[in-house]
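Figure S7 source data.
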Amino acid sequence: MPRKDPLHTKLCDSLGIEYPIVAFTHCKDVAAAAINAGAFAVLGQTQCTPEQIVANVRWLREHIGGKKFGIDLVFPASVPEQASVDELVAQIPAEQKAYAEDIARRHNLPEPKKRPEIYDLGWMEKSRALRQLEVALEERIPVVASGLGNPGFFVEAAHARGMQVWGLVGRQRQAKRELEAGVDAIIAQGNDAAGHTGNVGTFSIVPQVRAIAGDTPVIAAGGVTTGRHLAGAIALGAAGVWTGTLWLASRESDVDMRVKELLIKATGDDTRYSDCVSGFTMRTLDCQWHREWARPEAPRPAPAPYQLLLFGKIKQSAFDWDRREFMTEAAGQGVGFITTMKPVRQIVSDMVDEFYDAMADVCGEDD
Ligand SMILES: Cc1cc2nc3c(=O)[nH]c(=O)nc-3n(C[C@H](O)[C@H](O)[C@H](O)COP(=O)(O)O)c2cc1C
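Tokens for the predicted flavin mononucleotide complex:
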């Protein structure tokens, strides 16, 4: 075994955490539990109003006793400056709208009972993302991560307030731009990951980014769901891991129980990488919607955010009418390793135990 604890990385020092495991989650309870278990958490706030962000951050602060945490925002270039959701719905391209309506008709999927939840997503307007950022700066949130778009434009303002800025990238040249802009950590995410992600696999992108990162910590993302993945990430040159899928079926997670069941059942082969859900390529659990857009007669999906508005309506119907074949969730290829609903603390401790087992295997120790 190496003399220095390989799990105690520079990320642990800079964040004051025990384990270099970052939980990305939309659920405050998961975030608090992960932080209190010695990991770090970044709360996805893209879908929140500035007022909700303030309330969520204050709640989290009350539940983690002075420990650090982060939030995630996105700054995509290709969404309108400002537009109401109803205006966007009215602008959905006719061909894709007709195809989505045809899918619903052929599958006997009724209209949703409620307004689709997805209609109130924050990332549909640039101006809203900037208002979200303003409150992040006012609240001096210890880490602001940008899941999409170069965060370089707010690095100076964040540093002036003692905050860290992280950028999530899927390509080496994107990493170079963000490193030049002065980010404090770079998340190198591979194609295995849940959600919006690039073409390059985790095994390639992590060492590619590490090769140009100098002293800036690299955090590996994409498919990380076990301690062996964590050991692999550290060996590839990462100072920690950024994980999303891992927490979705946890006991504390607020994900719908029907989706938790789908996640627990899924194998690594049950995810699809497609732009049919949001208009950007993203990895999600396979469902009937994917199969419909893969048919030869299907049109190309509409660009973002229109495709997400189309899917959002179908998704709402699926939940309202309990039509599981149309239910999906962002999920990475590591979903196959999620086989039970565990409490967050146990997920963290299992990952740490597996990490040391993996290291013992590598170093040839009997344990
Ligand atoms: C349900 C879900 C929703 C996500 N939403 C966002 C998001 O709003 N913003 C973001 O930057 N990343 C989002 N992601 C991606 C995660 O931040 C992370 O990059 C990804 O989950 C890592 O891959 P893994 O799931 O294989 O661990 C989401 C992931 C999941 C599973």
